[in-house]
Amino acid sequence: MTSGYTKRKWMGEMFKWTVLVLFWISRVSVGERIRRTTPEEASTLTELHNEIRRGEYASNMEKLKWNSDLANLAQRWVDACDWNYGTEAGFETDAGFSSLGQTLYQTTSAPIDVGGAVNYWKGERTFFRGGKCILAGKCDNFIAMIWATSTDFGCAYASCDTIATADISNAILMTCYYGPGGDIATTEPFKEGSNCTQCSSRRGWCYEGLCNSECKERSNECDCQAHCYCGILQADCSCKCFNGWNGNDCSGKLLRVYDLAEVF
């Protein structure tokens, strides 16, 4: 009798501990699912993105910086575990941009290698020629990464039992948002030319070949690369064009009234 009581007690304890272990495992699983990208991963992603961007011969390529609001937006998107491009309604308020670019990546290898995701997107350059994809949809991720006027980005990933529309199970879904985005159907992602000579700020502040819109004066991260062909370089690294000339580098000639008469 004593032996039977001891056995039942032991089985009861085992059941209790089994329930506790299963509960702990479920909590860990949920925690992994909603885990944000780490500061180290954010730093790695920023470095890799900017390395790829400076590899293009671009005159207006901006330096990307990490944006936590975009990372949070990306987290909510991947938590839905759906293999689709898009944004949630009202993203403009949360992201601070009226348009966004996006990259998508999935893998069954855990833990995820965020650098591997970037290299996968970089591989799409094979299909990039003359400022566009030579095969529709084959390099959209790459174009989003190198969209010259994008200044901010944020990424996130989530573990998924099933990824909708992708027919894949037990995988990790990752996405990055880039702001502002652009219209890849009608506009080329960057302008070819000397680094930092056509920055969107109209100033030639440059950091390792990328436009740095945060610069106010010369420093280790703010080198003035402006070229003023028909104008005078200003202290703020912009060009003051002579009469009849315009553009960031004063290389564009303004048409006068009698010039227009000759054209038409």
Automatic annotation (TrEMBL):
Stretches assigned to the SCP domain: 39-186
Recorded superkingdom: Eukaryota
Positions in coiled-coil regions: none
Cited InterPro entries: CAP_dom (IPR014044), CAP_sf (IPR035940), CRISP-related (IPR001283)
Pfam families per UniProt: CAP
Protein name: SCP domain-containing protein
Species for this entry: Capitella teleta
